[in-house]
Amino acid sequence: MKGKLVNVEDYRRLAAKTLPRIIFDFLEGGAEDEKGLVHNRDVFDQWRFTPHRLVDVSERNISTRLFGKNWSAPFAIAPTGFNGALWPGGDIKLAKAAASANIPFILSTASNASIEDVARCAEGEKWFQLYVVQQQLAEQLVMRALNAGYTTLIVTVDVGVNGNRERDRRNQFSLPLKITPSLLMSGCCHPAWSMRFLQNGMPQLANFVSAESGSLEAQAAVMSRQMDAGFNPNSLKRIREMWPHKLLVKGIIRPEDAELCVACGVDGVILSNHGGRQLDGNLSPLETLADVAARIDSPVLADSGFRRGSDIVKALCLGADMVLLGRATLYGLAARGLRGVDEVIALLKSEVDCTLAQIGCPAVDDLSAAYLQRMS
């Protein structure tokens, strides 16, 4: 790609050129007609800034405090699976970039590096995201995260069944990755990716290759994202009893569901529509964020569709305590490995800082709905 990489979209384009089509489609794709993907981006235009003037913004502070710790920026790296297909050691590279930038990193249950390996190889605070397939298996994963020193547990509740991701179905994408003639042909057209892949081998779901990981049936269920469709408030309470640290629930949209989670003893919620990958036609978290923040006293985080520093600032104005980045940092990983993740994080920090200056707000902690106006 010619020219300087100056925004997340530039990294997306480079990732598309770097990865075989089947891999990029897995990263980029959504459910069914993918209208939810488009909506997740378009929704930010529903709010416009109303800048304050005659404000001293010669010094600005984009740091924030959450769960008793100071972070250098109001965003974290979201849990994402199968990152080893984008770049060898992808999960560890993401964790290292987060530690270097002093932002939280969240490891997915469906990672290609194990809970223990990430804890061993990357400094910084690490959070663990739990998919519940079976109660016994979930309890094993929770205890492994606890023993490995993870400080926050995130339970994802919006994957009762796998989303209808038609790109993956057309490509016959599966976990583990199958070597098909189509993949081989695409690999020939992407020699740098193919060389890295051949040198490092087939990515595995590393949390499910040990004897303690449960049955082969459970491993197959995770690979096809066949989660526990019977997960309910009592199930959540059982996990709450097991986990002595901060506990968040991810996948919430409705304010009353956020209230129910708090009643079950969680420490906060993450508003998410799974990046448009589960249900097409879903609301964006941005559309319920203000209502949820007004209904609960616990921290509210949000993901799905964030590509700009201005997107992040809008969410903070509407009541988010922090934003999670999924595809944005994965584009950096796919394009340039660890260097690309570092660059995307730095880029978004710079955009958040610039947006604060432009709207006349000296600090992230001073943001409020007064800086926004919703368009009719």
UniProtKB/TrEMBL annotation:
Belongs to the FMN-dependent alpha-hydroxy acid dehydrogenase family. The keyword Protein transport does not apply. One of its GO terms (cellular component) is plasma membrane. The active site is at 274 (proton acceptor). Its cofactor is FMN. This is Mandelate dehydrogenase. Keywords: Flavoprotein, FMN, Oxidoreductase. It holds the Pfam family FMN_dh. It comes from Pantoea coffeiphila. Glyoxylate binds at residues 131, 165, 274, 277. It comes from the Bacteria. GO terms for molecular function: FMN binding; L-lactate dehydrogenase (NAD+) activity. One of its GO terms (biological process) is aerobic respiration. FMN binds at residues 79-81, 108, 129, 156, 250, 272, 303-307, 326-327. Residues 1-376 form the FMN hydroxy acid dehydrogenase domain.
